[in-house]
């Protein structure tokens, strides 16, 4: 493995981690759109367009990190001044991707499970107290849905890590053929 390969792996790991941020940004965008739509449709449309531009920028960054790493390494001059000697690491690239996806999934779960437990507790408190409250307000499910989404993403990363690695490897092989 050369230094270029190491930079490729690091950039792809970072891209895998950023997928979570893209997926978690979608529910708040939809919630804000719905809330703004009730107040002013023009503001809601502007908010939706601005959010989609930001999501497209994030998606482009993830795409570059995962599938155009050679281009990024060349443009950022990451390997300039480094020797072309082989680094001795006895792991295949796909094994490193698997480790990265597993660590990412575990990190997502580590941060999202406490939030899910808190949101479930708040929902339980709301359900148990709404009968005693006079004129209860509707419950805001957005936090609970985001927590459930985070846990689901973490579990999908852990359960489908092989499929994700195969997809990344397939894209890499396909780009080499072109």
Give an account of the 3D structure.
- The model has no long low-confidence stretch (mean pLDDT 83).
- Helix 4 packs antiparallel against helix 5.
- The protein has one domain.
- With 178 residues, the chain is an all-alpha fold.
- The protein contains six helices and no strands.
Number of strands: 0
Uncertain runs: none
Overall pLDDT level? 83
CA radius of gyration? 21 Å
Q: Determine the fraction of residues in helical runs and give it as a percent range.
A: over 70%
Secondary structure: elements and pairs:
Blueprint (H helix, E strand, L loop, with lengths): L2 H37 L1 H27 L1 H8 L16 H38 L11 H18 L1 H17 L1
Helix pairs in contact: 1-2, 1-4, 1-5, 2-3, 4-5, 4-6
What is the structure about, briefly put?
The chain is built from 6 helices and no strands. With 178 residues, it is mainly α.
Feature tags:
178 residues, mainly alpha, 0% strand, single chain
